[in-house]
Amino acid sequence: MTVGTALMAIYGFTALLGMGVGSSVNAAYPVAQALVTPEEISDSVGFTSVAQSFGITFFLAVAGSIFQNTAVKNVSPLLSEYSVQQIRSLAAGTYSTEYQTLPEAARASVVAAIVASIKNVWYLLLAASAACFILSLFLGRNKLFA
């Protein structure tokens, strides 16, 4: 995950990121089941599911906040006459009403500012994946099935 995120400047590495996420997300279920008694398996699966759902929701909320806030920060100097709400609508994409009414000269700079805002979301993912990698070094190295 860390390598795929760090190399995000090249779109093809999204597949590498997906492989890292896919291999680590599902690993929690069999490991959790192997570490508990048979009576606790359903509890461990439920807990793992809730924890993963919470993590996804939390990081989506943080990523959305980072994107929206940096988009407003990056676009505001370019369009000082626009309100914050109009700038947030611009960040929704090129199909928004605000984008369609922008003068041609302003469109390229606004798109560049929004793309710069998207990059900040990848920094969050890079930090999270690096933290997971570092913390994985401290996990126990035990055989689950002898």
UniProtKB/TrEMBL annotation:
Main location: membrane
Superkingdom as given in the UniProt entry: Eukaryota
Cellular compartment(s): Membrane
Keywords: Membrane, Transmembrane, Transmembrane helix, Transport
SUPFAM superfamilies: MFS general substrate transporter (SSF103473)
Transmembrane segments: 121-140
One function term, GO molecular function aspect: transmembrane transporter activity
Gene Ontology annotations for the cellular component aspect, listed alphabetically: plasma membrane
Membrane-related topology note: Multi-pass membrane protein
InterPro entries, A to Z: MFS_trans_sf
Membership in a protein family: Belongs to the major facilitator superfamily. TCR/Tet family.
Protein name: Major facilitator superfamily (MFS) profile domain-containing protein
Organism lineage: Eukaryota, Fungi, Dikarya, Ascomycota, Pezizomycotina
